[in-house]
Amino acid sequence: MEFRSNAKPSTFAYPPPLEEKKDEAKEKVETAVLSITAKQKRRDAEKKSEKPEEMEVEEAKPAAEVEAEVEKKKAEVEQKKVDDTPEPDFELLTNPARVMRPQAKLISLPDDCRYQPMKDITNAGIIIMKDRRDGDPEDLVELVKAAAGGPKKEEEELPEPEPPEPFEWSDDD
Question: What per-residue confidence (pLDDT) applies to 156?
Fold first, then answer.
């Protein structure tokens, strides 16, 4: 049985899982500048100014890098297309127990539903349903016992143990 939520799916959607951001860049610590370092930098600057400047030449990128950039751009364009698709105005829910209180006001049953509620379903709680098609056979889900903690079939087949024999308790110390 499905229930129709007349709200956009993103309104009551689960929040995205948190991702821990890894700081790849280490914190830069200020270093003390020595007078010797400043003198050395000045000398290096003077030597560079004496040399004639060379022209910068762009090197051709390898074909693999160019293809990778093109694929990245294509992926970005496809992602934008996916983001541009309009969000539906409703959502079909299969588990009404997962509905939150504010969302309960927006819940309704589809028109072609076999069952009809006896009272308004926006109040939440236990919902008693009336079958609209009495003559049709029903597909009911069979209950399955939980595997954890319950008795196993082997234990169910064994006879129940005898109760202990009666005894008298005396509090003599």
Answer: 61
Residue with tokens 């056979």: 137
- Taking 60 as the threshold, does the pLDDT of residue 53 lie above it? no
Whether the full predicted model's pTM is greater than 0.70, yes or no, is no
Proportion of the chain above pLDDT 70, given as a percent: 77
Phi-psi region of 143 (alpha: psi -120 to 50; beta: other; left: phi over 0): beta
DSSP, residue by residue, the chain: --EEE-S-TTTSPPPPPP-PPP--SPPP---PPPHHHHHHHHHHHHHHHHSPPPPP-PPPPPHHHHHHHHHHHHHHHHHHHHHTSPPPS-EEES-GGG--HHHHTTEE--TT-SEEESS-GGG-S---EEES-SSSPP-PPPP---SSSSPPHHHHHSPPPPPPPP-------
Q: Which residue in this structure is represented by tokens 């082997």? A: 154
